[in-house]
Amino acid sequence: MMSALNRYLRTTPQGRLRVDRAKVAAEAKLDGKYLLRCSDPAMSAEDIAVGYKQLIQVERGWRDLKTHLELRPVYHRLEHRIRAHVLLCWLSLLLIRIIENTTGATWGSVREDLQDLHVGTFTGPAGSFAQTSTLTGAAKAIFDALNVVAPKKILTLAPAEQPVQPVPAAEPAAARPAAEVPASA
């Protein structure tokens, strides 16, 4: 740990350590600045900076795929399944970015706000119904920002099924009278 701080320290002739204010001031001039290097001399500084920022966004996307979407490696052998998996991952990430850009919030906070929304199914003698939990103010704001209609309070409503009347069982064959067979002449 001392080696990391050593660049900001100097030793006095008496052997005491002091903060080297000139080195701290020189480092402060670089705060908030990017020092980028590129092997293509034809690229402008602006193009290099934009490319670097895009790289950061791509890396963030892969990190989000692994953490927020909780995607793990899936091993496919057939090419069409591999392509489908990659496409679904890309679409998921695209939806996350649209939600983040539209709402101005991070995916983690949007997801946390929407996790309060639940559906309960209730069954009683009169029938059954599915009902959503009460929409929080944060969830309503997310739906409004995304221009998505919030779910209805009652999703399904079904009356109780009428009891089925039992069908009388057929008589066993032994209980039926034998059919008369005409005598042949």
Q: How would you portray this structure in words?
A:
The chain is α+β, with helices and mostly antiparallel strands and 185 residues long. The protein contains 6 helices and 5 strands; from the N terminus they run αββααααββαβ. Among the domains are: 1-33, no CATH class; 111-121 and 129-155, no CATH class. The protein has helices at 2-6, 21-28, 45-66, 79-103, 107-114, 137-145, and strands spanning 9-11, 17-19, 119-124, 127-132, 154-159. The termini are far apart. The model has no long low-confidence stretch (mean pLDDT 81).
Oligomer: single chain
Structural class: alpha+beta
Going across the major beta sheet, what is the strand order?
3-4-5
Secondary structure: number of strands: 5
General form: elongated
The amount of beta strand, in percent, is 5-15%
Average pLDDT reading: 81
- Report the uncertain regions: none
Compute the number of helices: 6
User: How helix-rich are the residues, as a percent range?
Assistant: 40-55%
Rg over CA atoms: 36 Å
The run of helices and strands is HEEHHHHEEHE
Distance between the termini: 122 Å
Question: Main sheet, how many strands, which sense, barrel?
Answer: 3 strands, antiparallel
